[in-house]
Amino acid sequence: MSKISLIIEREYVSRVRKKSFIIMTFLGPILIGGLLSLGVFLGMNDSSIYNVLVVDLTPEIAFDSTSSPKPMFVDELKETSQVRFDYTTDGLTNAEFDSTEYTLMLVLREDIMTFPEAEMVFRKLPSMKARSYIKSQVERVIEDNKLIVESIPKEKFDEINTDLNIITVDAEDGSTSFKQEQAFIGFGFAVLIYFFIFLYGVQVMRGVMEEKSNRIVEVIISSVKPFQLMMGKIVGVALVGLTQFLLWVILSGILFSVATSILAPELANAGTMADQIQATEEVANEVSKDAMEQAAIGEIAELILFRVNWPLMIGMFIFYFLGGYLLYASLFAAVGAAVDNETDTQQFMMPITIPLVFGFIVSEFALTNPEGAMVFWFSQFPLTSPIVMMVRGAMGFDSGTIWELVLSMTLLIAGFVFCVWLAGKIYRVGILMYGKKVSYKELAKWLKY
After folding, report:
1. Model confidence over 263-276: pLDDT tens digits?
2. What is the DSSP track for 179-200?
3. How far apart are CA 227 and CA 210, in angstroms?
4. Plot region of 327 (φ>0 → left; ψ -120 to 50 → alpha; else → beta)
C-alpha cells in the first residue's frame, strides 16, 4: 500500500471514529430538517394581533345616492381575526401615536387617488403577511373608487380584468420550460457544497496546525514527503465528508418518508398524484379552489420528481464537491502549514473565503437570471464554479451548451492542479517553520524554493 493510501486510511478511520462525527451524522438531518420545519411553521403561523389606527385624510365623498358622505376608507377595509381597523380623520404625530394602544398607524394622504402612497407607522415591525394584507385592502378601495369615478361597473371590470399566465417555451424542442423553477433545486445543492467546503476545508487547516504545534509532523515527515502528507490528509477528510453526506441522504430519506406518511399521507403518493392531477388539470381548475391547490401541489411534486435530471445533478454534485473541496482544502492546508496558531490565520483566510462567499452570492443572482452573462463567467471560474454551476446544472444542458459544462469541469481540474502545486510549495517549507510571523512576501519566497 502506498504511503498516501496509509495516510488517507489514518485520517479517515481516526475521524469517523470520533464521537463528534457519529453524533453529528445522526443529529445533522434532524437539526437541519427541524430548523427548516420550524422556520416554515413560524413564518406561516404568525399569530400576532394587529390593531391598526387608520388616519383617513381623504375628502368626504358619497359612494352612491343613498349613502352619507364620508372619507374614502372609513369602514371599507375588511378585518380579519389578526388585523383590526379603527378610523380617525384627525392626523396624529408619531409621539401621539406612541401614547395610544394601537400597534400600527396607517396614514392615508388626501391625494392618494392620484399619488398612491401611504405611510405605516409601527411600534413593532409587522410581518410581511400583515403588510401584504393591509396593502391589498387599501389597493382594493382605491380601485373601487376609480371604477366609480370612471363609471365602470365592478362586474364589468372583473370580467375584463385579466391575470396573465406566461408559459415559457424552449425554441429548441417546443416544450414548456421550467428552468427557472429548477434553478431553485440547484441552489439547494450549491448551499450544500458551500457548507461542506467550508466545514471540511477548515478541518484540514486545523488538523495541519495541530500536528505542527505538537511536533508530530517532524516524525511523520521523516517517513513521507510533505506533499504526500498533504494529499493524504486532504483526500482522507474528503472521504469523511462524502461518507457523512451519504449517511445524511439515507437518514433524511428515511425521516422524510416516515414524516410524510404520518403528517401528510397525500405527499407520500406525490408521483401518482402528479400524474392524476395533470390529467385532470383543466377540469380541476374549473371545479373548485381545493382542486387548484391540489394541482399546485402536484406541479411542485412533478417538478421535483420528474423534471430534474437527478443522475446529472448527483454526478455534478460529487464532481464539483470533490473538485471544489480539493482546490480549497489544498489552500487551507497551506495556510495551516504557514502559521503557528489560529489567530495568525485571519490574514490568509480572507483571500480564500472571498471567492467562496462571492460564488454563493452569484448563485443567488442566478435564481433571478440563470442565463445571465455574470452567471456564465463565474460558472467557469474554478474558484466559484463548484457553487454557481450547480444552479445552471439544475436547468439542464442541451447539445448546444454541453460544452459549457465540459469547459467548466476542465478549468476546475486545471485550477485544482495549479492550487495543489501552489499549496504544496508553501506546505513543504511552512510545515517545519516555527516561531516566525509569516507575511505574503515570505510566502512568495517559499514558492521559489
Report:
1. 555 555 544 444 44
2. HHHHHHHHHHHHHHHHHHHHHH
3. 17
4. alpha
